[in-house]
Write a structure and sequence with these properties.
Length: about 375
């Protein structure tokens, strides 16, 4: 065999695997059907700004092992995710905290904010929420729901909140402090210089073939290596024999603007239903950029059909059951390792993917 591993997918999972295998003297061929490495964390330089091509990516973790592991590939800045939400002409801080409550009701104390939320929950009279709308109102009351959750969620899922199941929202964290930091994690930041350079370092000893779809040349590629690390869609790997796993997709519309600072924040959510996009990302703010121009990206949620980019798995009962059937086949494979968000049909943040990849490496090599 020419290679020890054929790695399908040059995203975070595949690249960590390639790096660790390379360190152990193994030869890897990494293929990706896209024209670039890094999968969904790909950053592309436009006007000297690192543009997050597949949506805003903010690294955060409380896992010491993951945080110290990733430091070898980049220096991280002090970026803290503190999105704002625009509803009609009003502007609110997120996540829901004392700033938001002051903006909504002009209250200044945690006791007043708590009282307001409790009053609205009580007034709703909902004791057994039957859909997402009722669930949200029973957790945070009508005002927060109407202005900051309803339209955004309906755009995200392409369905009315009354038709969506309540389980989509399990908790809606509210903070009674003036804290706009979106994440609760111990560590957070953006790799200075973007994510792509991190992946370049991981793939430095591997052979890379881009614009190469595994399924277009399956037989030949399969014969090149002893083992396969597959990070694509698990249902496609098995020719959709149990059916097609569903996703939600997104489309991104980017624009270079002849101004230095468009919205003053990296992430602005648009929560009213009538605006078709959910967010505008202004990329330079991730790295505190001072370039003369700026690049913004509008993010539009959309229905996924086969062939579209699969972004968010729809983990309902039907799909999860179907995934279990595929997983059973996968567990019987002796020469194929499945990993990453598409092969495991799970929404994974980057730190989860790193954790999974490191566990997989331990199992494979130690
Ligand atoms: P991917 O990056 O998708 O890599 C898989 C690769 O396999 C792709 O490049 C694909 O082209 C390739 N591939 C698939 N099939 C084939 C085939 N048949 N042949 C060849 N190649 C193939 N995480 C965070 O921690 N923080 C965030 O702020 C954050 N924001 C996000 C925002 C959005 C909009 C999305 C969608 C995700 C976000 N994530 C975030 C999650 C993050 O993107 C993932 O955790 C990470 O990219 C997953 O890495 P992966 O290697 O599993 O998958």
């Amino acid at each position: 065999m020419k290679y020890d591993y054929l790695i399908v997918g040059a995203g975070l999972f595949g690249s960590i695997f390639a790096y660790e295998a390379g360190k152990r003297g193994k030869k890897c061929l990494v293929i990706d059907k896209r024209s670039h490495i890094a999968g969904n964390i790909y950053t592309n330089k436009i006007e000297d700004i690192n543009v997050h091509q597949y949506g805003a990516h903010i690294f955060h973790t409380s896992n010491e092992k993951v945080w110290s592991y990733i430091q070898q590939f980049a220096k991280f800045n002090r970026y803290t995710n503190s999105p704002v939400a625009v509803y009609k002409e009003e502007l609110y801080n997120l996540p829901f905290n004392m700033n938001t409550f002051h903006q909504l009701w002009k209250v200044n104390s945690p006791a007043q904010a708590k009282e307001m939320i409790q009053k609205q929950i009580k007034e709703s009279g909902i004791t057994n929420p039957k859909n997402l709308e009722e669930q949200a109102i029973s957790l945070v009351g009508k005002d927060i729901y109407e202005k900051l959750i309803k339209g955004y969620t309906q755009k995200q899922w392409g369905q009315s909140a009354k038709e969506l199941p309540s389980f989509i929202i399990k908790r809606l964290p509210v903070r009674f402090t003036y804290d706009n930091n979106y994440f609760n994690d111990l560590y957070q930041g953006i790799p200075i210089g973007g994510y792509t350079q991190m992946i370049e370092k991981m793939l430095k000893d591997s052979e890379i073939r881009l614009n190469t779809d595994y399924f277009e040349n399956r037989e030949e590629l399969y014969s090149l290596a002893d083992k396969i690390v597959f990070t694509g869609m698990i249902d496609e790997f098995y020719n959709y024999q149990f059916g097609t796993l569903e996703y939600r997709s997104l489309s991104f519309e980017s624009e270079v603007l002849e101004e230095e600072n468009h919205q003053g924040n990296a992430v602005v959510n648009f929560t009213e239903y009538e605006i078709p996009y959910t967010r505008i990302i202004e990329h330079k703010h991730f790295e505190f950029g001072t370039q003369p121009k700026t690049v913004i990206t509008r993010e539009y949620p959309k229905t996924w059909t086969k062939g579209d980019e699969p972004y968010y798995p729809v983990n309902n009962e039907k799909n999860n059951k179907m995934y279990e059937q595929y997983k059973e086949l996968a567990q019987k494979e002796e020469t194929v390792i499945f990993g990453g968000r598409l092969a495991e049909y799970k929404y994974y943040d980057m730190h989860h993917v790193i954790e999974q990849a490191l566990t997989c490496i331990e199992q494979e090599f130690d």
